[in-house]
Amino acid sequence: MKLFVIGNGGREHALVWKLAQSPRVSKIYCAPGNAGIAQLAECVPVQVDDLPGLQAFAKAQSIDLTIVGPELPLSLGIADEFRKAKLRIFGPTRNAARIESSKSFAKELMVREGIPTAASRTFDSMDAAFMWLESCDLPVVVKADGLAQGKGVIICGTKVEAQEAVKSMLSDQQFGEAGAKVVLEEFLEGEELTVMAFADGRTVIPMIPAQDHKRIGEGDTGPNTGGMGAYAPAPLATPELQKRILEEVLYPAIRGLSRTGSPFYGVLYAGLMIKNGKPYTLEFNARFGDPETQVVLPLLQTDLLDIIEAVVEHRLDQIHVAWQKQAAVCVVLTSEGYPGSYPKGLPITGLPEKTTDSVVVFHAGTTESDGAVLTNGGRVLGVTALADTIRSAQQRAYASLAPIKFEGCYYRADVARRALSDLSEN
Ligand code: AMP
Ligand code: GLY
Q1: 3.50.50.60, 3.40.50.20, 3.40.605.10, 3.40.50.300: CATH of 2-94
Q2: Residue 183 Cβ < 6 Å to ligand 1
């Protein structure tokens, strides 16, 4: 089979890496890809939001199946367009992807289906939002309704901060169209957990629970990023909690979308806050998470293509998904200045010659020029290590990244530390 993967990050490198292991795959194309992906797939210079360009490529190359990584093309309706053109594609329709692309849509769904989440109100007028802020508890969370690359969430400790955040979205339009509506939300305390699941509109198969590291600084300090590292399985997710997440969050969301005429085919990502053993949903995404995918897919035993085809053909109930009994830790290496502005085009040295069973370096923001690998983004690489325990996977990940160098390279030294303290408490 000829596959076409859309995207250029660490998530897409992990997808291509896993799909390349399938005996049924003869060729993988990736648009636009990166230097790591180029070792496994043929990269084509089409951008992820160029829907006509992507469709023309899939037609011209007689692609058997297209797999979408990022949210942007999904929110633009790539799955609808491909299906209309009789091209097979893995990913939800534009309407179903609103579970990620509109926080107010997701909130309404959660309330309708009884999915536990923070209490919230949606506003498109500043006066009404300010009035509500007069009597709300602090801290309060201010969220832009639309896609904002993880930057549209501001946790406000004072009323003045909250007013400024609302103003930046509704009046100053700092988030463009994405901030035309704001969701004001109760602040939840607890520990965060990611559970992604395959879904075919009816059946839901959860993946191994993972934990992301959203903040730039050690000890979860500083601004939010796309994600600075991840580990799986998360010890926080006991079998009992996993069962609750499946029954109280994932199934109700999938059933609710089907009932409203927008069945969800793809990967549903639940970003959860666990408080007193109970899962509250902070957000849904309509795709694989990044960097969570870099720890979850290496633990997947089943052929990913078999699962993806079962989703596309709406027969996920016939699939058994098996996982390795190991742990995985991924540490993300970023450019100096990220998540603010950062330089590009710096040479990267010390990359391993080849991947092994226990260490894979996933490329995120990289490009190749005259045989050299150069930085090309904020998140540059994700070094994933597998081992029998989280502690040894963590040690192996840090040992493996030590030889990798580029000017201004930064990473958090405490990835998976929380897992170790959760383990010692249990
Ligand atoms: P989101 O994009 O909605 O997942 O928000 C990004 C991050 O903001 C989350 O991963 C949390 O760390 C934090 N966050 C979002 N909503 C809340 C909330 N209601 N209470 C506490 N933290 C939140
Ligand atoms: N790791 C967070 C996300 O993929 O949105």
Answers
A1: 3.40.50.20
A2: no
